[in-house]
Amino acid sequence: xxxxxxxxxxxxxxxxxxxxxxxxxxxxxxxxxxxxxxxxxxxxxxxxxxxxxxxxxxxxxxxxxxxxxxxxxxxxxxxxxxxxxxxxxxxxxxxxxxxxxxxxxxxxxxxxxxxxxxxxxxxxxxxxxxxxxxxxxxxxxxxxxxxxxxxxxxxxxxxxxxxxxxxxxxxxxxxxxxxxxxxxxxxxxxxxxxxxxxxxxxxxxxxxxxxxxxxxxxxxxxxxxxxxxxxxxxxxxxxxxxxxxxxxxxxxxxxxxxxxxxxxxxxxxxxxxxxxxxxxxxxxxxxxx
Length: 289
Description:
single chain; 289 residues; mainly alpha; two-stranded parallel ribbon; 2 strands; elongated; disordered N terminus
């Protein structure tokens, strides 16, 4: 109200008035006040694809798709964890790695639940919730979950590929196979790495509050730029390692002089479908980032 009165009664502001108006920032510039044409009024941030005005998820099909993927991600990965951990089968290296992958993808499902719920809660009036959401604990938790889940997932997929490649190329040397304690130590390193990467934006390296979907897209400082570029490069390197492993598996399987166990080859084919579909989901994100 004070700003409107200022615009009506002080069309020719003094230096003090100009300073006062300069200090006023609108959350969104869609209020259509006459005074918004005043050059001294700054409106920020401007609505865009990552900072929407009315809806967090701007399209109906995107909203429906998010809920569908959320239900499948949570239910499917919970089922995998229950079957692998509670089942009567021995926890082998492959099953242990699948448990880690299922947990990572379950965390991604929890992230989608937070985004979908916030979209439902703020529907048609996201501008009233944007500041509280993006600067509050909700966005921080969502950002932590998505970065932790994506990095742990990429790390686990890479370890699965390396384990399959190592097993098949050394099929005749049983003593060279990876044991459970080896893989456990490797995955402890993966968890530590994923937790570190997810925690850095919470302590000032980049930020989860830059965009409405809580991704670490703040690159205003050198540290944030190094962080984002390093994460993207590591993901690309991981994909190249996976490709190399499966090319090696393919050559080993089709080499008549190389003996492989039928079960190992069957598992490798199933893993290949899982891994490349997972990376297919992540490729567009890395490309546009």
